[in-house]
Each structure stands twice: as structure tokens, then as C-alpha cells.
Amino acid sequence: MMAFGAVLVVVGAILKFAVSASASGVSVPTIGLILLLVGIALFIAGLVALLVGGNRSSVTREGVQNVPGGQERVVEQRDRWAS
What we know:
Layout: H1 2-18, H2 28-53, E1 57-67, E2 70-80
Antiparallel strand pairs: 1-2
């Protein structure tokens, strides 16, 4: 998602600032501005998704421990978040 956003930013910037052509009823700089803004939004959304959910993992460990009265089953669950 971030790569597609970066491509849209580049294409939008080219259309907005480097192209002066105009078609009938269509403003190329306006289309460039729209692509530029959508690309920035996609890039930021991809960055947020990467930072928030990219490194999250869940670890579950099960085992049996010997205690004075016999054996006891132990289950440990832990979430690891990106920090």
C-alpha cells in the first residue's frame, strides 16, 4: 500500500507541476492534485498499518510442572507488540 501511495504521489506531482496540457473539460493539474492527495493518504495509511499491526505476534506456551501434590498444567499467553 505504501509503494502504490508513493507511485501516486510521484505521478500526481508530475501532472500537477510539470504538465501544462489541458483537455476539453478536464484539468490535468486538478487530476494531478487529486492523485497527489490520494497518494499521500495511502502512504500514511500504509505507514500506520505497518507501525500498529506489523510486528504484533502472540506466543502461547504450555507445560506441565511437578508440584508437591502431583502435576500441574501451566498455560502462558503473551502478546508482543512493536515498540
